[in-house]
Specification:
Layout: E1 23-28, H1 35-46, H2 53-65, H3 72-89, E2 96-100, H4 107-116, E3 121-126, H5 133-148, E4 158-161, H6 169-184, H7 188-191, E5 195-201, H8 205-209, H9 217-237, E6 243-248, H10 263-272, E7 278-281, H11 290-307, E8 311-313, H12 321-340
Parallel strand pairs: 1-2, 1-3, 3-4, 5-6, 5-7, 7-8
Residues 29, 31, 42, 45-46, 49, 51, 55-56, 59, 70-72, 127-128, 132, 134-135, 201, 203, 249, 251-252, 289-291 line the site of coproporphyrin III.
């Protein structure tokens, strides 16, 4: 009878096995790090997207206001460090790679490096938690293009992408914590009456309508997350507050309809209605991107100030431990489903999913 003691090293317990994956890839947007990078970065982002020149100049100014440096790369480095630490603390041995759509480190270089390192099966997590062409399908297309560019003398890895994960309880919990902290930062006399205003990136209505397998997923997912976060905040604070979803960072040509209301317009209405205070919670962003530090912290908070409306911006998920743990759970869950050939609904992207890309 074989002696199990001599059967080689114990296999990892199923709950920390990442088989069949041998690497995790963080796939992100990328951002400039120096003033000289800003214009080339914007050219990368908007190539063929028909963004009016005035809009590009305005967005360039947002970056220059912050010294030509986007916060996004530092945030991704911090997230990777936190994920590596969390994986190690849980006895999980999985190297983490990082590649971007629009700036260095470019995805194609990262995929080539993975091939050189002999990586065969990669699990990819994008820094976008929701379904849409911009947040999901475009990243899939970027993966395909990067794989196709791997030099012929190398074996390209196989890459599976985790689907929209905004519904993960850890993502919801991280955002709820941010809202609770923002409420605490409001003057005590308006705290209980504060309105919870959840914010995400506006996208063309045609892109929104075509998001997810059945369409309309972008807005539906955000409404679900907003409701879940608001419920958790109510449970923690013991106060039910009205909540709603608004949009920021509208781009594109003026005649193309994008999701509304814009956060600034809505703040005007709320002030006119006599709202006591607001908390802005950027659930549409996984960390404090330029849209958060400019469109919310700089612009929307100035609007609120002008209106005399007390307002605080809640932290995004960032490196909140609940979000970092969520990433580990997403990885382990996908790996175990891959082993049992039972992919989760989130990972099922039919051919027509998130295709609509323009107004
Ligand atoms: C849904 C969505 C997300 C969330 C999902 C995800 O994260 O992917 C997102 C993220 C981001 N968008 C970013 C930056 C930009 N997005 C632009 C333009 C556009 N975004 C769009 C949508 C989204 N964008 C759309 C429909 C356009 C119009 C052009 C087109 O149809 O493709 C432009 C061009 C100028 C402008 O028009 O604003 C810039 C500079 C950055 C980096 C920020 C930083 O540096 O911290 C990040 C994380
Ligand atoms: Fe964007």
């Amino acid at each position: 009878m074989p002696n199990p003691q001599q059967a080689g090293p114990d296999p990892l317990p199923a709950d920390r096995s990442t088989d069949p994956y041998d690497a995790l890839l963080l796939l992100s947007f990328g951002g400039p790090e120096r003033p000289e990078d800003v214009v080339p970065f914007l050219e990368n982002v908007t190539r063929g997207r028909g963004i009016p020149r005035e809009r590009l100049e305005a967005v360039g100014q947002h970056y220059f206001l912050f010294g030509g440096r986007s916060p996004i790369n530092d945030q991704n480095k911090a997230l990777i460090a936190a994920v590596e630490e969390d994986l190690a603390a849980h006895g999980i041995d999985l190297p983490v790679y990082w590649g971007n759509r629009n700036w260095d480190p470019y995805l194609a270089d990262t995929v080539e490096q993975m091939a050189r390192d002999g990586v065969r099966r990669v699990l990819c997590l994008a820094t976008s938690a929701y379904s849409s062409w911009s947040g999901c399908r475009q990243y899939r297309d970027n993966l395909e293009a990067a794989l196709a560019a791997v030099p012929a003398d190398l074996v390209a890895p196989r890459i599976d992408k985790i689907g929209a994960y905004c519904d993960h309880p850890g993502f919801v919990a991280a955002n709820a914590d941010g809202v609770v902290a923002a409420l605490d930062a409001l003057p005590v006399e308006v705290r209980d009456d504060a309105r919870l205003v959840f914010v995400t990136h506006s996208i063309p209505i045609s892109m929104s309508d075509a998001s997810g397998p059945q369409g309309g997923a972008y807005v539906a997912q955000h409404l679900d997350v907003a409701a879940a976060v608001a419920a958790q905040v109510a449970a923690v604070t013991g106060v039910e507050r009205p909540h709603e979803l608004v949009y920021c960072s509208r781009s594109g040509a003026p005649h193309i309809p994008w999701l509304e209301p814009d956060v600034n317009d809505r703040l005007e209405e709320l002030a006119a209605e006599g709202a006591a205070a607001v908390v802005l919670s950027p659930i549409g962003f996984v960390s404090d991107h330029m849209e958060v530090v400019y469109d919310l912290d700089t612009e929307a908070l100035a609007t609120a100030e002008r209106l005399g409306l007390p307002a605080r911006r809640a932290a995004s998920a960032g490196t909140h431990p609940a979000f970092v743990a969520a990433i580990r759970e997403l990885v382990l869950d996908r790996a175990s489903r891959e082993r049992t050939l039972a992919p989760a609904a989130r990972d099922h992207c039919p051919l027509g999913c998130c295709t609509g890309s323009r107004g």
